[in-house]
Structure formats: structure tokens, C-alpha cells
Amino acid sequence: MEKIIEKAVSENPEVQARFHAYKGAEFDEAAAKGRYLPNVTVDQVFRNQERVVPGNPNNTNSPNQQSTLTLRQMIFDGLATPAEVGRLDHVAKSRFYDLQGQMQSIALDTATAYYDLLRYRRLVSYAEDNYVVHKQVHEKIKSRVDAGVGKKVDLEQATGRLALAEANLLTETTNLYDVSARYQRLVGELPPANVVEVQMTGDGLSESSDQVLDAAYKQNPNILASIENIVAVEKSVSGRKAPFMPRLDLQGRKVLDVNDASRNSILAADTLEVTASWNIFNGFTDKNNLDSASEELNRAHDLRDKACIDTRQLVSIAYNNIKQLNEQVAYRKQHQDSIENARLAYRKQYDIGQRTLLDLLDTENEYFQSRRNFTNAEMDLSTSYARTYAGQGLLLRKLGVTRADVGEYARDEYLDRENVCKAIAPAQLVVDKAALLANAKPWEGEAFKPKGPEKATMKFTPRILFQANSAIILPESYADLDIVYDVVKEWGNDKIEIAGHTDKRNTSKEKYNLLLSEKRAKAVADYLAKKGLDASRIVVKGYGYSQPIAENDPINGNDANRRVEVIRYQSVAE
């Protein structure tokens, strides 16, 4: 994993873009320092000058040329140059930390992709095993039904569970493909056939969430980049004050091509001069530039505060996940081992006639889910460690990954002075299990008395459209049916009535409409069952046109009466 991450942070184009921005900023700083050095130029002038002799009507034009060596040295420019050099120095440092932040981000994304590869390769293997068992059991049940010794309802249940197993297999293979593509984007190549199983640990990680967060505030590169940006803008504000002060320049000038004819000319004389200039009025440009820089400084402080908030959220959540997942992994492992033992026991009991094939499918499904949950918890734990280290700016160091062409900057005092982040993490929620048990109702008592009668407590009418005189659902209604599924799924184990209704016209036949309304309700129930809803919860009824909610037209009926209602039944106290 270390080699893969090292390749990613060395070659990923997002990192390289930050690297070149950082190197460019260093060259900008070097270019600004050039203002301290003299400027030397050679100016070549070609002129055609009229020679005027008093009293001579035959004045002539005399072409000549002049080469001048000029040296200019800035003496004082209102401290604009020191401010610009300082600004670009901190811009380079900000770009450096921005590069470090991108390297941490790509390292985290690559580590996440690595663990997701481990995750989904395992899950594909589990889904394959689960599919094979479901297929084998389905074929056994089918053969019994075909022979007339099995129940068709058992075959229906086995068929539904086989479909779920196939869907799970498709889901996991799709997830594996997705993470392989993500790995390729990060690393630049397809993942290897064999990925080493490696788990990240919390060696050296503080036991206190506040201490973990405090370390992140001091080392997170995004926070450090925002602080360097503040100091850079402060230098920019100083530089914008330069036009309000005088400017002094030293200039030396020497004519290179002096001949005897021009030796006594004033143009041929060597000069050395100091010039001073004052900016009296510049159309308020300088004042507005200063005000603009002040606003940019306010913005830089806002970005620093945002970096603090983002870091606090990232590290607090990741560290809390570590605490929770460490405990959860143990429970998930215990659940997996227990279900595996129960699965083996069910198979032995099936051999002696104490369990059915459907019982075996139940344990297979629970075993698949337990393995999936344990794997997810394991990989989530490692990913949470990686996310915590990345939030602290320590992930690369933890993995021993470096870039030879990226050095380090010494930590200056202003990094701590400008860091106003507060290391206060949300309190971690700890469940008091003893208190829960002490306050719980007795296992035997009121909570386990037989339930009262079931009554309709909720009803809604989704927009479900059918083909004319048919129970075939139109495709545009599938999205609404999916919403119905999500709603009734949240109702737990409560009974659900799917009620079909039609409208009435002069030509309507009672028996036909009664049957059509029931078929339509059945079509909706079948759709929900195929989505995964327990079919035993559903009651299908057709009411024909006996329960209109609006007046029917003798010729056209009424669209409002052609409907399917979903009704929730709950047990209520007598």
C-alpha cells in the first residue's frame, strides 16, 4: 500500500498541478528580489537632426546615431519591493502547504480505494457463495414442486430469495468495478490482481479527542496554507501603501559613441543623478487598491476560520468512528462466528428432517449479511484511521511516504499566532447499557401481552397509472411505486392493504370492474414484493366502483375514482 500511495502522490496530475504552482511561486519570489539589483540597459538612438547655422540659408540635415549605457538603481520605493518579496515568500509557503494538503488528500483517497478493493473483492466472493447456495436450494425445491410433492409457495419464496442473491452479486460486482476505476484514476494504472491484506492501527494516536484535534490544528496543511495566505495578504496591504511615500532612484548615464565633433556637446557628457518623485494625485486609484487589499485580508481570515471548521469536522468524526468501530468490529466478528455455527447446525438438522430448505436459505442470508457487515466494519475502521491521520497532516509520515523534490519549511512563530482554532470536539456518545436495562420494562409483562385489534391508521393514494382496461402498470409510475415501497418499508411489520378502485359509467359492469380493481391492486402488491417487501404483510382487495370519492360522469366516469390506495393497519389498545 505504501508503494501505491507513493506512486499516487508522485504522479497524480492533481498533485503535480499543485507542485508546479509551488515551484512557480518560488520563481516569482526570486524575480521580485531582482528589484533590489541595478538595471543596466544600452539604448541605441538614430536621429536625423537639422543643422542650423545663423545667417546661412543653406542649412542641412545631419544624420547621426547615439548609443547610451544607462544604469538605474532603486534606492527607496516606499517599501514596495520588500513588501512584494515578503508577500511572494509567503505565497510560496502557502502553495507549499497547499501541495502538502493535496498530497494528504490523494493519499487518503488512495488508501480508501485500497481498502475498498479489499472490501469489495471479499464481498464479491461472499455474494458468489451466497448465490450458489440459493441456486442449488432453488433447484431442489423446484424439482419437488414439479414432482407434486412440494408447495408452490415455497418455490415462490425460494425464487424471490434467489433473485435477491443475484441482485446482491450484481451489486457487489458493480461496486468492485467502480472502485477499480477510482483506483485507476488515482494511481494511474489498474489495481493489481493480488492486494495485500493490511490494516491500519492507532499506534501513537492520543486517547483524547481534544488532543487529537489540537494536533490537527497545529499540523493540518490546509490550516497552515490559510495562515500563510493571511501573512501574504498582510504584506500586500503594506505594499499598497508604497505610493503614498516618495520614491528615490539613482541613475548613471554614459554615451558610448562620442567622437571628436561631439566631445564638447552637453549630450555627450556622463551623468550621475538621484531623482525623487512624489505621487500627488492618482485618481484615487492607490486608495482604492489599499481598500481592496484590506478586504482581501478579511477574506483570508475567513478562509482560515473555514479551514479550522472543516478540520474539526473531519477529525472529530473520523476519531469518533475509530472509537465506535473498534468496539463494533468485535461484535460483528462475534455475530459472524455465531451465525456460521448456527448455519452449520441448521444443515445438520436438515439432514435429520428438523429443518426445511427455506430454513437453510434464511441462515445463508443471515450469514452473508454477517460477513458483509464484519468486512465493512473492518475496512471502515482502517479508513477512519487513515482519515484521522490525514486530518492531522500525518498520513504520509505514518506510511513512510515522501517526495524527494519537496522539502520542508521551518515552523515560524506566526503560524501559532494566527492559529485561533479551538480544540473542542463534540462529546462522544457513550450508551449506558446498565441504565437501559435498569429502566427497561420486564421481559414478561405488559410489553408482551397480546396485541389489540388492528385498525386503519393511515391511508394515501399514490399516482399509479395502468393501461386502459388492463392491470399492466405504465412505466412512468415506477418512480412513484418506489416511493411507496420506501414509505411502507418504514412501517415495520404492520399490515398493509392495497385497495383498487374504478370509476363508473353507463356501460360499466359491476363484476368486471370488481375483478379489474383487484387485479390492479395485485399488480401493485407484486411490484412491492419484488422490491423486497414481505408479501405476508400485504392484503389485496378490489372494490370496483363501490367507493367513489368524486361524482362519476355517465359517459366519461371520473379519473379521481380510478385509483389505488395504500392503507396502514396497526394494533391499537382496546
UniProtKB/TrEMBL annotation:
- Which InterPro entries does the entry mention? OMP_bac (IPR006664), OMP_efflux (IPR003423), OmpA-like (IPR006665), OmpA-like_sf (IPR036737), T1SS_OMP_TolC (IPR010130), TolC-like (IPR051906)
Boundaries of every OmpA-like domain copy: 453-572
| Sorted UniProt keywords | Cell outer membrane, Membrane, Transmembrane, Transmembrane beta strand, Transport
CDD domains in the cross-refs: OmpA_C-like (cd07185)
Please tell me whether the keyword Coiled coil is annotated for this protein: no
Q: Which Pfam families match?
A: OEP, OmpA
Which Gene3D superfamilies has this protein been placed in?
A: OmpA-like domain, Outer membrane efflux proteins (OEP)
Q: Supply the PROSITE patterns for this chain.
A: OMPA_2
Where in the cell does this protein reside? Answer: Cell outer membrane
Q: Transport as a keyword? A: yes
Which SUPFAM superfamilies does the protein's record reference? OmpA-like (SSF103088), Outer membrane efflux proteins (OEP) (SSF56954)
Q: Which family does it belong to?
A: Belongs to the outer membrane factor (OMF) (TC 1.B.17) family.
Tell me the protein's name: TolC family outer membrane protein
Task: Give the organism, scientific name.
Answer: Methylophilus luteus
The beginning of the lineage is: Bacteria, Pseudomonadati, Pseudomonadota, Betaproteobacteria, Nitrosomonadales
